[in-house]
Amino acid sequence: MYRAVTATLSFASLVLGQQIGKEVAEKHPTMPMKMCTAAGSCTTESTSVVLDSNWRWTHVTNGYANCFGGEGWNATHCADNAACAKNCAIDGANYASTYGITTPSSGALRLNFVTKNDNGQNVGSRVYLLASDTKYRTFNLLNKEFTFTVDVSKLTCGLNGAVYFSEMDADGGMSRFTGNKAGAAYGTGYCDAQCPRDIKFINGEANVAGWKDGTGGMGSCCAEMDIWEANNDATAYTPHPCNVFEQTKCTGTDCGVGDDRYKAMCDKDGCDFNSFRMGNKEFYGPGKTVDTTKPVTVITQFHTADGTDSGALSSIHRFYVQGGKVVANSVSAIPGVDAVSHISDQFCAQQKTAFGDNNYFATLGGMQAMGKSLKRMVLVLSIWDDTSVRMNWLDSVFPNDADPEKPGVARGRCDPMLGEPKTVEKDHADAYVVYSDIRFGAINSTFAAN
Questions:
Q1: Has 145 been annotated as catalytic?
Q2: Which of 252, 256, 330, 445 could pair with 275 in a Cys bridge, judged by C-beta atoms 3.0 to 4.6 Å apart?
Q3: Contacts of 52 (CB under 8 A, 6+ apart)
Q4: 3-state DSSP assignment of residue 215
């Protein structure tokens, strides 16, 4: 796939704008990380986090009227994509009071699920790691490992505390799209393998045309590496390759909506390793081998065929550290799938066959394509609930009408209805996740591999 650029679109980008408001000062919460070259040899980087632009107050540039609110876009100021981008701005964020985003200690970040505020309440959040106030911290994951500690003890069924990488532009898209005036400093440029269409501004354009039930006519696609999607009952890590290798706007079939799922630019299913789904129901959860009532350190390694930072991605491995002990990932116990604990092209092919799933992962290039994208990734940390399918794909029976005894259908112990957003937001408004101690570096440099 490629992006077609016409003279009309090029001209339009000059007059559109994702502009900056001046009503709320933007101050990025600090979240330092460590870069490691060998075990015990790490240096601290002065990184911080920035709130995604989609969560921000969007208002007219010359006043306080909302451009976007509970009823959708303001028809007066947002008659079309161009007018809306010209008339509207995103503003700074009060991280703690409005969004429940705090830094309880150095190197730690707490994301609250529901936060009561002056405007009602905020549900969930998504932030990105910054290298500076105007640039995201980018990562080449090849031949490296990424480590962090997480507390998911308060994340119930239907919730997801997610840590992942997306192939976003380091500046949030400012240099490629002159209509984007806000950039990484205000959390712009988001994309992932689901090609989300709920993004309000894409490439400096407002996503007004075709907006209905929370989605517009455009989506924002890019490769995604899910390091950690989890609550206290289930977890999975999943590569999602694409046939594009930068943040790319989609429309129509390329977004993969409905029956076009396997025609999309990106592999929405990915190739997941969920220990419960792979046959070990005692590995992860409260009181299990990896005990989710306590914080756990999560290590993900990206091995290349030749052991270099530019080599072809060959496999993705997982380890945990809890209570001072290193815990190897569970191994597959599914008939027809080798008893391995890592993701590779062979594992994915066997798993898709055993579960009767479409191997769109291989269609879009598998590990080779994923490896190409892993050279320039942006770190994302979030907490969210699922308005589409109640997070059943992570922690319950999915599809709901399938036989839970069929291989691949059961992903966790949760009742399918427990993930209903209205239920979760009412009964578990006090849920939160804490991420801390991010480390990145050479294989076996970020934890004691004993």
A1: no
A2: 330
A3: 125, 126, 127, 128, 187, 190
A4: strand
Closest CA to 84 of 221, 220, 247, 202: 202
Instruction: Please give the domain boundaries of the chain with CATH numbers for all domains.
Output: 30-55+94-442 (2.70.100.10)
* pLDDT-derived band at 12, boundaries 50, 70, 90: very low
Counting Cβ atoms within 10 Å, is residue 198 exposed (0-12), middle (13-18) or buried (19+)?
Answer: middle
DSSP tally for the chain: helices H, then strands E? 8, 29
Average pLDDT, the chain: 94
Spatial CA neighbour of 57 closest among 177, 172, 186, 191: 186
Q: What are phi and psi of 382, to 5 degrees?
A: -150, 170
Query: Residue 178's pLDDT is what?
Result: 84
| From 145, 167, 224, 420, active-site residue | 224
Confidence of residue 69 (pLDDT cuts 50, 70, 90): confident
141: which 2 tokens?
Answer: 């994951």
**What is the distance between the alpha carbons of residues 128 and 139, in angstroms, rounded to a whole number?**
12
Residue 53 carries which DSSP code? G
Strands 125-130 and 377-385: antiparallel
From the candidates 26, 205, 229, 425, give the one annotated as an active-site residue: 229
Which residues have CB under 8 Å from 221's CB, separation 6+? 191, 192, 193, 195, 242, 244, 247, 248, 249, 250, 254, 255, 264, 265, 266
d(Cα 320, Cα 393) in Å, to the nearest integer? 23
